[in-house]
Amino acid sequence: MLSNLNIVLFGTKFPENVGSSARAMTNMGCSHLTLVSPYSWDMDKAFPLATAKGRDIVERATISDDLAEALKGQTRVYGTTARTGGWRKGVMTPSTAAPLIVEQLRAGEKVSVVFGPEDRGLTNDETQLCSRLINIPTSRDNSSLNLSQAVLIILYECFKNALDKPYTPSGPPDERTTSFEEQEILATNLQETLLAIDFLKADNPDYWMMPVRRFMSRIDIKRNEFNLLMGICRQIKWIAGQTGRK
Description:
The chain is α/β, with parallel strands linked by helices. It has helices spanning 15-27, 43-60, 67-70, 94-106, 124-127, 147-162, 180-196, 205-217, 223-242; strands at residues 5-10, 32-36, 62-64, 76-80, 111-115, 132-134. The protein has a 6-stranded parallel β-sheet with strand order 3-2-1-5-4-6. Helix 4 (94-106) packs across helix 6. The termini are far apart. 30% of the residues are buried.
């Protein structure tokens, strides 16, 4: 989805920041990069921070001398700003802008997000070319963000909204919850282990095992944790056997 989104870096002073931004774009599946009047542009300085994944984005970047010219053909233009108030009304946050951007991309519109120079951002004249403005909320003590950080934050919000369903991390198969049978196997092995070290009374081990079983029922034992506890039980029983305990 974000492959159709155009990131516009206007007046970027450091080619390294272009490289870092290209890397952030690859993380979020965005590949269209436009550079407008980059200061002392040096592709070789951008490559190391772009890494191998972002190198292609840097190489294929469109370079223009004029912001208005670079935005021709775009149907929606979002500008980023660190300054609010005054006539800069209705400024959106990345989380409120992202759903609109994704909706417009799905409708086939051509959308650009413009980022200004690192030292001053976009001027009033430059923001007039933008249909909406986005501000990234930060601590009042330090409102300055690195260019690539700003790019990543906005693209991350867009990426989340572009997903077909909410992202839920899936762990390895051995992180599934243990079955009833596995829980019984573990309880039996734990009881044998506690008997081997004389922790449980041999005359009625099932009775003395009840508090342990209640404790186990309150925790969500995963399969990898089951394997770990089973291994501990085996080792303890082996040591108990080495010391002559039956």
